[in-house]
């Protein structure tokens, strides 16, 4: 049964934040069911509590649900304009729902008047130091659910995902349950869970569950249009000092993915206790990989990374049922530690394409 939401959720949440600040308070709580059609900006030193609420993106809208206050502004591209200490805390089963897919994908984004693809993130933080996002159920994300660029000192935890699992056949009929043989017909492609991009550091990601159409947790240090749009002058671009632990998820591509291809450094990453739950998921037939470092199949950057660009990577405690391999390695990796990898029958441990 479809949840009935009140319209005007964006304005309502903005008013809650404004009223709290006018009272000298730095916390506001959202309750009830709401539809949002414009992004809500959250200021520094503020906690937004989503208390048992259901927040759904409006049909046909092209905007995020939450961004930080200076996101996308000239000030937000400077170290002086950095936002600080922002928390989005879900409790009592709070849900963020992408609702009905708006048709914006990576192949048509920015064309014929369409906005850039990152407008489909549920939460997009850029240039934030000190943040927490927790306690959320993210449903039907239209692209990556949670996206962070040039963010530091963060804690992302206790998040459950359930991507759209629809594929469309040759006659336009929709079917549930993603099949590896039908990837070209997947309706909502690349619906990751959590993405850390260029300039992110000192972040803990833990207690993550559910199903994602693409990668559940991705650390991707590339230098594409999005990263250049939100790059912060004077701050380092390295993606580093990140802990990813206690992830139990079914991912159509990879449960955890690390990728840098050309110049941007990715280092000092701890990955531990990662469980591929795809055999128990009704949403897909199997995952491709459980942990992936580099990419030997596709190029997303100018070249493969060198061991001076990807280094100090520890992977410990992997339980895999993946169709391709538990671990995929490509490029060059300096000081890589792998321990305690267990594979189901028929799953190979390693696909090694390192140069």
Description:
Helices cover 6% and strands 45% of the residues. With 355 residues, the chain is mainly beta. Strands 1, 2, 4, 5, 7, 8, 10, 12, 16, 18, 20, 22 and 24 form a 13-stranded parallel beta sheet that branches. The radius of gyration is 19 Å and the shape is globular. It starts with 8 loop residues before the first helix and ends with a strand. The mean pLDDT is 96.
Question: What's the topology here?
Answer:
Blueprint: H1 9-22, E1 27-30, E2 33-36, E3 40-42, E4 46-51, E5 54-57, E6 66-68, E7 83-91, E8 95-97, E9 123-126, E10 128-139, E11 146-149, E12 152-162, E13 166-168, E14 174-176, E15 194-196, E16 201-212, E17 217-220, H2 225-230, E18 239-251, E19 254-259, E20 266-276, E21 289-293, E22 310-320, E23 325-331, E24 334-343, E25 350-354
> Structural class, please?
mainly beta
The number of E-state strands comes to 25
Counted by DSSP, the helix tally is 2
Q: Whole-number radius of gyration? A: 19 Å
Low-confidence stretches: none
**Range of strand content:** over 45%
Helix content: under 10%
Q: Judging from the principal axes of the Cα atoms, what is the shape?
A: globular
